[in-house]
Amino acid sequence: MAMTTLEERLTAVILAEPDVRTIYPTRPAFGEIGSRLGIAEIGASGESPKVAVVESEDGTAVSISIGVTGQRPATSVCRNVHKIIADELAPVAGPRPLSISIKVASVG
Amino acid sequence: MTDPRPPYDFADLDIPDAANLDGHTIEELSAYLDAERTPTNFSIESSAGCQIALTALARLRELTAHTLEVQAAVEPEPPDSWVHSIMNRIALEARTGRDIPISHPAPTAHLTMTEGSVRGMIRAAGDSIPDVIVGRCRIDGDVTVPGEPVTVTIDISVAWGASIVVAADHARRAIRWELLRHSELNVAAIHITVQDVRFRRADALTGGQ
Q: Domain of life here (chain B) (predicted)?
């Protein structure tokens, strides 16, 4: 049976939220570097990770940057994504993940 | 008829490379739109700033498709200089900027929205008003502190024949509504300057009658 990483699981559940349009790569500078090197396309599957997950003894830290549709208030969507991540982390990190950072980078 | 200064002067901004968005220029983005975003450029598609700028550029094209810049006939600037200056503003304002907090009771939650996303939202709200095109947009005040009063300042262009007062009022209402709906900013004021009046193509063909 194929195993999925926490990053992949989080990506899937976040994108299942209908008002999340996209998840931006966690390393935007990667695109800039690629562009300066003349590399227009940086991997069809997007090598840059979309969800940054750092697991330590203290807990799990998650960081993402999302674009939202604008159909619902961006603040509500952001809080809902936080809940989705917290629920997904619960079996992994216990009831209190170390940190969940969500940035709304585009609306509409 | 209008102020002879360039309508959207970005000399007041201390950004060294005014037209650079995650390694892309506004001209690149414009060409990418011309090509109907094919072949897919993953660097552009994965950049929030580029996405905000592409959305604004597409809207600007639509809004100016039936517009003629008649000032060009009497002023030394080329006809597309006005549109080009707005394109440069779009590139500047689509940058990420500061982080604007979103409240959450959990101490482990760090929720924010970027200043660039809010500026994009403001521009879209202004552009949604008939006869209005937003030229520039800025947010003054410390947006990183919850509850801190901030002011929004935009320059707009209004179509010839439209009521400037009504257009500005509608733009102000639309922007306030969007900010209330999508952000937790404490907006103390929205300042609107009508920087320009432009003719529609139909107006120009009939001599503005």
A: Bacteria
